[in-house]
Amino acid sequence: MTSAELSVRRADAKRAYLLNAPAMVILFALVAYPIGYSLWVSLHQFNLKRPKDIEFIGLGNYLTLWQDPAFLQSLRTTGLFVLVVVSMTVVLALSLAMVLNESFLGRGPLRSLALLPWAMPGVVNGLMWRTIFDAKTGALNGLLTELGLIDSYQAWLASPVGAFLLAAFAQVWNMLPFAVILLLAGLSAIPSDLYDAARVDRAGVVQRFREVTLPWLLHPLLIVLILETMNSFRAFDTIYVLTGGGPGEATNIIAVLSVRTALTYTDFGLGSAYAWVITLITFVISVGYVAALYRKGNFEV
């Protein structure tokens, strides 16, 4: 490379940085600063009930968490919630994506309809399902009564197990379309020649899925696992509207506990610590996903 070409490249690089500078400033103001500020708050005793007693306590809030029974119970509930939601999402999304990848009459409109739950905000999603599961006027009770499957209206959200499973179902219903889109894109990229070769070798449906489909879907599956895990850990609006974290502590996951601690009890230091615990846990899990799946997804196109 000549000196003239090198100077032109440096000038282009400076121009690119200059043109991107406004966007970077806005990004810093909207993302980086709030994240940094929440970390700063989590290291302080910061309760609005005592605004003059704000002081630096280091990891004091984090040490308090691990001695708090409510946090430990919430952590167990969150882990189970994430496991149920992610498992159901991956299985249902993969099944639905494989169906929508086939050619049949009405596939286009069905693909469009599959996107509707994803377009619904979490608060609206929670309100919708709370209305459907209502013990007195819920559509589910009315339908099951008309079909003769139940004799009287049931309080579906009154039992801890029922509330937990229905909250997980509402979360899956809301986030399932996004996972379907990612997996459907991965399925569309698989060369049809591979399936033709597999049929020539008399490979069955299960063998074709294991040897052809699954290896090509490892990268999309990795993205789905990471995003759905993050969304499940951060799930708040749907659960808060649907169950409010109850009954008891049945659906009191970390995100709900974090917001309640910060906004209800005005303890922003402890609430921010909850939020950073969520961040650290999802980061560790994401690294684990990448380590376990990404290397296996390297294939030659």
CATH topology: MetI-like fold
Written as H for each helix and E for each strand, in order along the chain, the element string is HEEHHHHHHHHHHHHH
- Structural class, judged by helices and strands? mainly alpha
Largest beta sheet: what is the strand line-up?
1-2
* Large-scale geometry: flat
Largest sheet: 2 strands, antiparallel
What does this structure look like?
The structure is a single chain. The protein is an all-alpha fold and 301 residues long. It has one domain (63-297): Orthogonal Bundle (MetI-like fold), CATH 1.10.3720. Helices cover 72% and strands 1% of the residues. A two-stranded antiparallel ribbon has the order 1-2. Helix 1 (3-42) crosses helix 14 and helix 3 runs antiparallel to helix 11 (218-233). The chain is flat, with a radius of gyration of 24 Å.
What key phrases describe this protein's structure?
301 residues; mainly alpha; MetI-like fold; two-stranded antiparallel ribbon; 14 helices; 1% strand; flat
Fold blueprint:
Elements (H helix, E strand, L loop, with lengths): L2 H40 L1 E2 L9 E2 L3 H6 L3 H32 L6 H7 L2 H4 L2 H11 L6 H8 L13 H29 L3 H9 L4 H12 L1 H16 L3 H6 L11 H11 L3 H27 L7
Antiparallel strand pairs: 1-2
Helix pairs in contact: 1-14, 3-8, 3-11, 8-11, 11-14, 13-14
Offer a quick outline of the entry.
Helix content is 72%, strand content 1%. It has 301 residues and is an all-alpha fold.
